[in-house]
């Protein structure tokens, strides 16, 4: 009878080394991955707005700002990597990425709490205080057309029980963890010692 995939310790070792190689590559190429991910998140957000008709609330816009900052930091990190002896500078840029994604997780988590009514939103959410600084002519112009107030406590899109803020919270946490690990391993993981594979012969 043929044994399972993980019954042989050699197969387990090979599988583990493949995962190790994958994570090593991710850590070594993290600035490029962080840049591509940040731009992808921005493209998805603008796609929902333009083609899905989901207007962003103020907290949604703050979450986009985090990705713009992360994209700029990641771009600078790619430039730093071309310098000689860039390990310390690369660690510093990855640390900045970790802080940026941490702030994104905080904003997204706060937004998620507002949606679940765990705490109140900001004054700018739901149009509170939005008309305080408007001139009478601006108010007349706004009243003459369709007026749509984008509230922060009403999820515009939900998938698998999570709103866009909830998914962004999980994604930002994941990006923060990878950025933090890239601080420790800016050139990837240290190569593991090779394993000698011996074939068994059935007697």
UniProtKB/TrEMBL annotation:
InterPro entries: DiS_bond_form_DsbB/BdbC, DsbB-like_sf
SUPFAM superfamilies: DsbB-like
Descriptive protein name: Disulfide bond formation protein B
Origin superkingdom: Bacteria
UniProt organism field: Candidatus Phycosocius bacilliformis
Chief location category: membrane
Keyword Membrane assigned: yes
The keyword Membrane is annotated on this UniProt entry: yes
Membrane-spanning ranges: 22-46, 66-83, 95-114, 156-177
GO BP of this protein: protein folding
Pfam families listed in its UniProt record: DsbB
Cell location: Membrane
Membrane topology: Multi-pass membrane protein
GO molecular function: protein-disulfide reductase activity
GO CC annotation: membrane
Keywords, ordered alphabetically: Membrane, Transmembrane, Transmembrane helix
